[in-house]
Structure formats: C-alpha cells, structure tokens
TrEMBL record:
PANTHER family: TRIFUNCTIONAL ENZYME SUBUNIT ALPHA, TRIFUNCTIONAL ENZYME SUBUNIT ALPHA, MITOCHONDRIAL. Keywords: Fatty acid metabolism, Isomerase, Lipid degradation, Lipid metabolism, Lyase, Multifunctional enzyme, NAD, Oxidoreductase. It catalyses: a (3S)-3-hydroxyacyl-CoA + NAD(+) = a 3-oxoacyl-CoA + NADH + H(+). Gene3D superfamilies: 1.10.1040.50, 2-enoyl-CoA Hydratase, Chain A, domain 1, NAD(P)-binding Rossmann-like Domain. The gene is fadB. This is enoyl-CoA hydratase.
C-alpha cells in the first residue's frame, strides 16, 4: 500500500501502475471535504516521491465518482474574508496541480456522477475514460459561484471556449456521448471495462504512442485564440448569457469574465485569477442564499427519508376526479412508476383526464425525452374507471374533486367504504380544513391532505397536511408516495390555507391595498418581477383564476378575520364580479390573446382601469421600495406566524415551501432568510413604518423579542 487514509487509498495494481481510489468512510458518496483534500495532497506527495510508478489510474468505490464539494462546509468557509477564500482555493489547487504534474501519465476512470470538484479532479489528469451511464459537469453557478479548483482554466483549454462557457455558465450535467463528442473525455465504455481501458492508455503513453506531455502543455498553456477571436468569443457569450441568466444571478457572466481574463495566462497565473473571482462571488448575498437553499433542500430530503422508513408501500394508487388536476396526478404517478386508477362519475371527465395525460406525454416525445413505446407503457399504467371495482387493491387514494366541502365529504365517505382498512385517503384540497373533512370519516387516522400545485407535472412541491387525528403511518405513506412521484413533500399542520396559500393571500392583500391607494397594477407587476418573482401579483391572480382566488380569500378571511377580513370591495372583487377570471376565460387584469404558437399572450386592457376606478382612491405614483415593502411585509409576517403557530416544523420548511410552491425568488433564499438578510430589527422597524395599514403589517411579539435580542431564523 503506497498510501492509506479515511477517504483515499493508493496501491500498485500491475506493471508499476498505481491506483488512487476515492472511498470516503462513513458516507454513501465521495465529496471533497477538508479531509479528502488533505489526503489527496498527502497521496499526491507519496506518488511524486515514488521512483517505480509508471502511471496512475484514479477510481472510485462509490456508485458515483465524486459528487462535488462538501456544501455543508461552505457556510463556515464563505464567512471568512475574500483573502482567506483566495488562500484556501490556492492551497487546494496546489494539490490538483501536483496530480497534474506527476512524472508519469494519469487517467481517471469515471464510473458515475462526477460534478463540481469531482469533475475538476478528472480534468487534472491527462486522460478520462467514462462509463456510458455516467454524467459530468460543473454546476457551481447554481450555488451562485463558479468552479474554483481550476475548472474554468482547464476546461476552457481542453474543450475550447464556446463549449466551456456552455458547460460552466449553464451548470449542466452532461451525458457521456456529449462529453466524448466535445472532447471532455477520451473514451466511453461499460463500467467494468474502465480500469482496463485506463491501463491501456497509460501503456500507450509509456510506449510512445500517445503524447501525454503535449496534452498537459495544452491544459497548462494559454487559450489558443488570437486577440480578435478571443474578444468575439467572450463578448458575444457575455451578452447572451447575461440575457438568459438575468441580473439577479451574476455568477454565469462572472465566470465568463474570469475565463476571458485568464485566457492569455499560463496555468498558475490563470488559477490565481480564478481564485480571486471565486472569492468575490462567494461573498455575495446571492451565493449565501443559494447555498442556504441547497442545505435546506438537503434537510427536507433527510426528513423525507426518515418518514419513508415508516411508510407502507404504495403499489397501486387511485385518483378521484379525472379533470385537468386528476389527469395531471395520474400522469405523474404513472410516469414515475406507480400504476394508478383514475375514477370519475362520467365518461366526459375520464376523457378529459386521459387527454391531459396524453398531451403531457406527447410533449415529452416531441422534446426527445421519451419514445412512443414508452408513452404506451405509461398510458397502460393509468386505468380509467367509472366505479370502485378494483379499489380493494388500492394503497393510497388522492381525492381531487371540486373544491367544495360538501362534495368532498360525500366522495371521501363513499370511498372509505370501498377501500381496505389500511388504505390511506388523501385530499388534494388547497384551502379546506383537513380536520373538517375528517369529521365524518370512520378512520380519520388514515386521512391527510395531499396538496398538489398546478400544473402538477411542473410544480415540485406537495404539501402533506396532518390533521389532529392523522397517524404517523398515513403521513409517512403519503410522503413516500409524493417522493415516488418525483415531488418534494413538506409536512405541515392543518390550518386555513395550510402553509403556501395562507402566506400567499396576505401578499395579495398587500397588492389590493396598493391598488386601492392609487398604484398602477402594471407598475406593481413590473416592480415585483424586478424584485425576482416569476410574475407580478396581478398577472399571478390571472393565472390562479379570480374565482379560485376569491374562494380562497373567503376561507382565509374566515380563518384569520383579525388581519385577512376586509369589508371594502377590492380590485380582485371587481374582476370576479365582472366575470374576468383571468387566463381561464381570457380576461382578468389583463387580456389574453393567442399567439402564432397557440400560446396565451398577455395584453394590456384599458377597460380594467375603468372597471376598478370606483374602488381606487385616485392615481398615485409609488416609489419602488414602497411597493416592495407593502407587498413583502405581509407575506413575510405570515410566514413568521406559520412558524410560531407550528404549522411548519422549521424555518427551512417554510422557505422551501414558498420557493417550490409559489416561486419565491430563489436568489433571496425565502421569506425568513429575507428577514435575516435585512436584519430582524430593521425588518420590524420597516413593518412599524406601515403599521397604520392594518394588522397584516403588525409584527408578532416573538419577532419583536428576536429583534431586541439580535436573533435570526438561520443562526
């Protein structure tokens, strides 16, 4: 054994060839944490000092090669100064450079996922051979940073500027065929042939058939473009990527600027440029928020895994109500491998549900994500029915009928009689109390909410709502089924609107107040989109549907009359009363016309201003900061109340629910992180400034205590 550590071992395997193997003890995956980098440095020094080694094969004992850096270390790391971050990266790069400079040929055998620092490790060797099912990439921009272990330097010289910009600024995970075609790897083979192929490459190098030193010189030298070619490549790319990423996500463009800056430098100087650029990005609030989101997401996954251990298997599901929502649930379940019965009371409903599933599957075929025979397999996993014939075999039922408590109550009671005693019943309600719906059930312990968001196939969140009598088994089984459907489940306790809608409607309340006080709804939309929302509140109301919004608002007003009940008629009420329901009938705050591609296009409608005139107290020009404050304070305060009322278990649950459920701007991290970033004391001061607008703007006593004590939600 040449070297033996807790993450890395090095041994001679044959003919003077060494194998450096990554196998981080106590972890299911390999990642670059402090220990792994230290051991890689020690192993590299041993290899460098060895007199008898003729080549090195780099391997992994895990299913993945290396999934990247240990993100859990980022929070502490990024809290340091820029100078410390630069020094840390340069120290790590010394290790990668030592691997690249070893006095013999080196090959990495990529047996699985190699991302971020994992792929940068691969780039440090002379050659790369890759499993047919593996993926490689540099996804750091998704965390608000860019590669810092030499990735921008080596990849831009290995595969060329254009491809490197695409890989790095897009943060893509690339399949083996693409990696081979674009020159990132040298061969693609089945996994069991990788080591033999790597050894063969080393032997070819030692026999003089391959010039590995020339390959190194290419990676360590300047980018081979003249001044004009370099300027054209980088300037055009910056403009294109800036338009695509938007100003709220600076890392993709900054990565291009860094590559442009080090294009005329050799490796060591180029890596210094990369390290300084990385440190600047790591100190941005965007990076802090996106890293926080990643960690929050990991927490959600851990919680879901714990629930899964307690769950019953869902081998057959059922959905009641075969409309657009029911068809979406059936499609998603069947697509991800759980067969499902789709029941409705009439054939028209069945036809609509199947039409929705077929439409979504056809889109997958058109985009090359599915073959026609696979579409047939998915459709065959959806069994339409007008009766309860096979319901004794169903493990979990999703009720997705009309949002009416009497109808839901009747359907749930009827279904309970037709299923086994251990079958879990769930309701896809967006507003109706789970405790209310459970009152007439014989087995309320088997019942919970399973709130999907529309459109089902696109929205990642599922709220699993626990009622007073819901058992852990029912929650666990529902969480497991949601995960099997490819969704992110968040367990919340019952209350009007649960988490997402309870928080969303104070936001709409802020909007209604602004319009009442004379704000132009179009300007409010533009300001909130500039803030980072995918659409402004007026546009969002049109998408949700004014009838749906009106109903949900009534539920919120009844549940929280002290702050959500408003006796005055709002612009939303006016839209509803004039049958302007939004996109569903082509008229709301905006008009909707069909473009050449058959998609709805938003158009300004002057009639809206005439209709809302009676509920508007004159026209007034608001500053952008005031619009943001009046919109965000109610949303943030209601999120705080959900945490204080134990509707959600932790701040991470609340923030991720808003990001996955209503598109809260990810680069801002979530409502509670938004408060943290502003400072709890400053947020309370801001809310007090608008206290005369009513209880929606009044901080809780606990939040005031947090402000006084200098506390935060994410310590």
């Amino acid at each position: 054994m040449i070297y033996e550590g807790k993450a890395i071992t090095v041994k001679e395997i044959e003919g003077g060839i060494a194998q450096l193997n990554f196998d981080l003890q106590g972890e299911s995956v390999n990642k670059f944490n402090r220990l792994t980098i230290e051991e890689l440095g020690a192993a590299a020094d041993k290899l460098k000092a060895s007199k008898d080694i003729k080549g090195l094969v780099v391997t992994s004992s895990k299913d993945s090669f290396i999934v990247g850096a240990d993100i859990t270390e980022f929070t502490e790391l990024f809290a340091g100064s820029e100078e410390d971050l630069v020094a840390n990266n340069l120290k790590a790069n010394e290790v990668f450079n030592t691997i690249e400079d070893l006095p013999f040929p080196t090959v990495t055998a990529i047996n699985g996922m190699a991302l971020g620092g994992g792929f940068e490790m691969c780039l440090a060797t002379d050659y790369r051979v890759m499993d047919t099912k593996a993926k490689v990439g540099l996804p750091e921009v998704k965390l608000g940073i860019f590669p810092g272990f030499g990735g921008t330097v080596r990849l831009s010289r290995l595969i060329g500027v254009d491809y490197a910009i695409e890989w790095i600024s897009g943060g893509t995970e690339n399949r083996a065929d693409k990696a081979l075609k674009e020159g990132a790897v040298d061969a693609v083979l089945e996994g069991d042939k990788l080591v033999d192929a790597a050894i063969d490459l080393i032997n070819q190098c030692n026999d003089g058939k391959l010039d590995y030193k020339a390959r190194r010189e290419e990676k360590q030298g300047k980018i081979r473009l003249n001044a004009m070619e370099s300027m054209m490549a980088f300037e055009i790319s910056k403009a294109f990527v800036a338009g695509k990423a938007g100003k709220n996500y600076p890392a993709p463009v900054e990565a291009i600027k860094v590559m442009q800056k080090h294009a005329s430098l050799t490796r060591d100087k180029a890596i210094e440029v990369e390290a300084k650029g990385f440190a600047r990005m790591a100190k941005t609030n965007v990076a802090a928020c996106l890293v926080g989101l990643f960690l929050n997401d990991q927490e959600l996954k851990k919680k879901a895994k714990l629930w899964e251990k307690e769950a019953n298997d869902v081998k057959l599901a059922a959905v009641l109500g075969a409309g657009i929502m029911g068809g979406g649930v059936a499609y998603q379940s069947a697509l991800k491998g759980t067969p499902i019965l789709m029941k409705d009371i009439n054939q028209d409903g069945i036809a609509l549900g199947l039409k929705e599933a077929k439409k979504l599957l056809t889109k997958r075929i058109d985009k090359g994500k599915m073959k026609p025979d696979q579409m047939a397999d998915v459709l065959n996993s959806i069994t339409p029915t007008l009766n309860y014939g096979d319901f004794k075999n169903v493990d979990l039922v999703v009720e997705a009928v009309v949002e009416n408590p009497k109808v839901k109550d009747a359907v749930l009671r009827e279904t309970e009689e037709m299923v086994r005693e251990d079958t879990v019943l769930t309701s896809n309600t967006s507003t109706i109390s789970i405790n209310t719906l459970a009152r007439n059930l014989k087995r309320p312990e088997n019942f919970c909410g399973m709130h999907f968001f529309n459109p089902v196939h696109m929205m990642p969140l599922v709220e699993v709502i626990r009622g007073e009598k819901t058992s852990d088994k029912a929650v666990a089984t529902t969480v497991a089924y949601a995960k099997a459907m490819g969704k992110t489940p968040i367990v919340v306790n019952d209350c009007p609107g649960f988490l997402v809608n309870r928080v969303l409607f104070p936001y709409f309340g802020g909007f209604a107040g602004l319009v009442r006080d004379g704000a132009d709804f179009q300007k409010v939309d533009k300001v909130m989109e500039k803030f980072g929302w995918p659409m402004g509140p007026a546009y969002l109301l049109d998408v949700v549907g004014m009838d749906t919004a009106r109903h949900a608002n009534e539920v919120m007003a009844e549940g929280f009359p002290d702050r959500m009940k408003d006796e005055n008629k709002s612009a939303i009420d006016v839209m509803f009363e004039n049958n302007r329901y939004g996109q569903k009938n082509d008229k709301g705050f905006y008009k909707y016309e069909t473009d050449r591609k058959g998609k709805q296009k938003k158009v300004v409608d002057e009639e809206t201003y005439k209709l809302i005139e009676p509920v508007v107290q004159g026209r007034k020009e608001f500053e952008e900061d005031e619009i943001v404050a009046r919109m965000m304070i109610p949303l943030c305060l209601e999120t705080v109340r959900c945490l204080e009322d134990n509707i959600v278990e932790a701040p991470a649950d609340a923030d991720m629910g808003l990001i996955y459920g209503i598109g809260f701007p990810p680069f801002r991290g979530g409502a509670l992180r938004y408060i943290d970033d502003m400072g709890v004391d400053r947020f309370v001061e801001l809310a007090d400034k608008y206290a005369d607008l009513g209880p929606l703007y009044h901080p809780t006593e606990k939040l005031r205590e947090m402000a006084k004590n200098g506390e935060t939600f994410f310590g």
